[in-house]
């Protein structure tokens, strides 16, 4: 049953949340605690996928996927808890406005893109790198970014900002998963991998489709960002570092897509 791992992941996430709430004696445990636990769950999923790969432990694929889903659901729960806590603090905004919130949402997007794609994959080995990347992103958020909930600057109080962040990070999530697939493409000739991986042509097509998916969302992200900038500062484009690097990223991926279509690269 394909959804068995999703259901088990949902139960594990619910149990984790319940234990946190019970320990803290509140229905809304600190979102930073939940995000921190998500980091370790993603890392655990990556390790189990790795054991599945190295030791040819078939049940490891199911277990790694189930734990990955539990991390995804807990990440999602933590996001909504933080949203509620912004309202309780009197600020009431969608938690996508600072580095910490953006990074934990990035982790959610990476996990989400991969897990929904995994239904169509012939092997689950890719999760070993995907969830490692997601756990590193989450760890960086916990260790280097402030999780404090603060009032928003006037320029950040916009639905266009929400649309901009969601679309951009869906694109970045797809690019991160494409990176993981690309790593396996590069090492697919290794003898101990040949029985686990699809052909290089299949891997190449998967990377290409992920890049197309990410490019679509990044394009929407740049457009919504320009509309937000005009609303907030009266200019669609000001060549600040974030805008410039988003354009450079867009051009690089656009060039890769163009090369694939015209030259078959």
Automatic annotation (TrEMBL):
An annotated GO cellular component: plasma membrane
Cytochrome c assembly protein domain: residues covered: 96-265
Functional summary from the UniProt entry: Required for the export of heme to the periplasm for the biogenesis of c-type cytochromes.
Gene, per the UniProt record: ccsB
A Pfam match: Cytochrom_C_asm
Protein name: Heme exporter protein C
Main localisation: membrane
GO molecular function: heme binding; heme transmembrane transporter activity
GO terms (BP aspect): cytochrome complex assembly
Transferase in keyword set: no
Membrane-spanning ranges: 33-55, 62-84, 99-117, 124-141, 161-187, 207-229
Keyword Transmembrane helix part of the UniProt annotation: yes
Membrane topology of the entry: Multi-pass membrane protein
Family of the protein in this entry: Belongs to the CcmC/CycZ/HelC family.
């Amino acid at each position: 049953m394909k959804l068995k791992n999703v259901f088990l992941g949902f139960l594990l996430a619910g149990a984790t949340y319940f234990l946190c709430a019970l320990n803290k004696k509140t229905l809304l445990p600190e979102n930073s605690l939940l995000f921190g636990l998500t980091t370790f769950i993603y890392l655990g999923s990556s390790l189990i996928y790795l054991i599945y790969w190295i030791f040819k432990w078939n049940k490891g694929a199911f277990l790694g996927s189930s734990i990955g889903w539990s991390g995804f659901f807990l990440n999602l729960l933590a996001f909504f808890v933080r949203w509620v806590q912004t309202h309780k603090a009197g600020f009431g905004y969608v938690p996508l406005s600072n580095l910490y919130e953006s990074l934990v949402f990035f982790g959610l997007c990476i996990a989400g893109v991969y897990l929904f794609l995994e239904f169509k994959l012939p092997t689950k080995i890719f999760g070993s790198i995907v969830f490692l990347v997601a756990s590193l992103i989450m760890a960086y958020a916990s260790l280097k970014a402030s999780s404090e909930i603060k009032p928003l600057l006037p320029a950040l109080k916009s639905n266009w900002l929400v649309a901009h962040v969601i679309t951009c990070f869906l694109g970045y999530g797809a690019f991160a998963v494409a990176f993981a697939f690309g790593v396996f493409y590069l090492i697919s000739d290794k003898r101990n991998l040949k029985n686990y991986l699809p052909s290089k042509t299949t891997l190449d097509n998967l990377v290409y489709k992920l890049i197309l998916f990410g490019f679509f969302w990044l394009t929407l992200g740049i457009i919504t960002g320009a509309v937000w900038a005009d609303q907030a500062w009266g200019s669609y484009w000001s060549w600040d570092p974030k805008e410039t690097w988003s354009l450079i990223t867009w051009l690089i991926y656009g060039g890769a897509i163009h090369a694939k279509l015209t030259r078959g690269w």
